[in-house]
């Protein structure tokens, strides 16, 4: 039946009319057409050190240039970095032995942001910097060490000679005394920091002869 003069006819608009185009080379491009910013995908932790954590990100292929913003927080420390949308992002100058929350966001050229992706990581504990012998005799020795940066639950201390397991103890102080040693023997001193979650640092090592 033919439409009357008072009726309007409506037609479906072609999909191309509603969808932003990827322009050919040489054409002008308006990044504001792309309001939606995809969140970072497949974010993995590549490496955890005592003061740095590195992440692997899958880059998003698009004519829009994105940046990555990484916000990090702990109970005592927070910060933020912004970098190009590349495969690896490294956060440095962190506190050793500390639990961090990392929030990763992708930002478009028009300032729009994606939803955040959150990960958790605890930096490695740092070992004591220096061991100093304060008292030495033929059968005993006392020594102390500098307190390392970051959180410390206990110190794991070992005093051993070549071919022997030696003595091992845990202490909350940064000094210790070992008795009942053998005269004229070279002893190796090992001090590691231990976190509340059980993670132990590499040892600081020194040696002394009774």
Automatic annotation (TrEMBL):
<dbReference type="Pfam" id="PF00041">
    <property type="entry name" value="fn3"/>
</dbReference>
<protein>
    <recommendedName>
        <fullName>Fibronectin type-III domain-containing protein</fullName>
    </recommendedName>
</protein>
<feature type="domain" description="Fibronectin type-III">
    <location>
        <begin position="127"/>
        <end position="210"/>
    </location>
</feature>
<keyword id="KW-0677">Repeat</keyword>
<dbReference type="InterPro" id="IPR013783">
    <property type="entry name" value="Ig-like_fold"/>
</dbReference>
<dbReference type="InterPro" id="IPR050991">
    <property type="entry name" value="ECM_Regulatory_Proteins"/>
</dbReference>
<dbReference type="InterPro" id="IPR003961">
    <property type="entry name" value="FN3_dom"/>
</dbReference>
<dbReference type="InterPro" id="IPR036116">
    <property type="entry name" value="FN3_sf"/>
</dbReference>
């Amino acid at each position: 039946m033919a439409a009357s003069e008072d009726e309007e006819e409506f037609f479906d608009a072609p999909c191309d009319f509603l969808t932003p185009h990827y322009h050919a080379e040489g054409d002008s491009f308006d990044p504001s057409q792309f309001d939606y910013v995809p969140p970072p995908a497949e974010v993995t932790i590549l490496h955890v050190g005592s003061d740095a954590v590195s992440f692997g990100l899958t880059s998003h292929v698009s004519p829009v240039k994105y940046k990555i913003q990484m916000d990090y927080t702990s109970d005592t420390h927070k910060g933020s970095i912004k970098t190009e949308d590349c495969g690896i992002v490294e956060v440095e100058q962190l506190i050793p032995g500390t639990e961090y929350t990392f929030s990763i966001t992708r930002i478009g050229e028009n300032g729009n942001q994606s939803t955040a992706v959150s990960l958790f990581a605890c930096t490695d504990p740092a070992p004591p910097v220096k061991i100093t012998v304060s008292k030495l005799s033929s059968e005993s020795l006392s020594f102390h060490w500098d307190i390392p940066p970051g959180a410390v639950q206990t110190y794991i201390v070992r005093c051993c000679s070549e071919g022997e397991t030696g003595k091992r103890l845990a202490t909350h102080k940064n000094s210790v005394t070992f008795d009942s040693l053998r005269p004229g023997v070279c002893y190796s001193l090992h001090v590691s920091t231990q976190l509340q979650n059980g993670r132990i640092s590499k040892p600081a090592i020194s040696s002394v002869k009774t």
